[in-house]
Amino acid sequence: MKNNPYIYILIMAAVTYSVRVLPLTLIRKRIKNRLLRSFLYYVPYVTLSVMTFPAILSASGSVVSAAAALVVGIAAAFFGASLFVVAAGCSLTVFVIEAILMFV
Amino acid sequence: MKNNIYFKGIRDSLPIALGYYAVSITIGIAAAKAGMSLFQSGLASALNFTSTGEFAGFNLIAACGSYIEMALMQLIINARYILMSASLSQKLSPGVSVFKRLVMGMGVTDEIFGISIAAEGELDPMYTIGAITLTIPAWTLGTLTGAVLGSILPEIIVNALGVSLFGMFIAVFIPPARKNKVIASIVVISFVLSYIFNKLPIFGFISDGTKIIILTAVISFFAAVLFPIDTEEDESYEK
Known about the structure:
The complex is a heterodimer.
Chain A: H1 5-26, H2 34-52, H3 63-78, H4 83-103
Chain B: H1 2-12, H2 14-33, H3 38-48, H4 51-62, H5 67-77, H6 80-89, H7 98-104, H8 110-117, H9 125-149, H10 155-179, H11 181-199, H12 208-226, H13 231-238
């Protein structure tokens, strides 16, 4: 049986939007519990780190260019480069290294 | 004043919009493969605005999965947004209206969450709404491009744009890690555990989305127990 693509899309959208918006609208007060506050304080750093590594290594055409982008990105961010510069630096690194690899 | 923050959101989201455009090209290709029309793929991206969720969703559509399966799958893959949304709720002034919360909620994606949480002190929802203004159209347009052009774009361009998303993550967690040794250690531990979790075959049955949830919950919990934030950090987070 072939299901209706529009129903699929609506289910996807309804679940995804609920998950995004319910905590934002339901939690209106400062959370007092120290453990929970600490937990939510650390969540962004952990989740962004976990999503970055090792996923970045397979985000480009080769592990070498991706690893170089990781190093360049960390160095640039460490020395205070802006979001745009860090992101562009990573992209440029991949572009340059893959261009070199093509001709080697 | 409000306008300034709105436009700052638009400006800061420019690299995200470019990255989204590149990533969503692959989403468009996946949608076309799943047999969706151009309109359907664009609609799916405009309404869902999530890479992992859409990828998995299109695969399930191609496999003619049930509606219940679709709902459960989206819930599990996107469960990390619950944590992000809860985390963002603590960055908002309690007086922020429900309407603004409902609008900015559309922007709870990995990257827009990243720049929103990085804002100094309290978060003005107009910042996140500014970021949505540019990124949702970029995401949708990229999907349409992918659905139409297929794989014509040179691979090197797609690769280069693809890593920019990770560059944005890095730009969010490295600066605080430089200032705070606890966060620095947590970043290193997260990298190591994430690597192990992804490479060991015994964890192969767990989806990527679920891995992110488990690691985030476990590592953040231990960090919270061992290093509860003191009043000083509390304040900087609340201001």
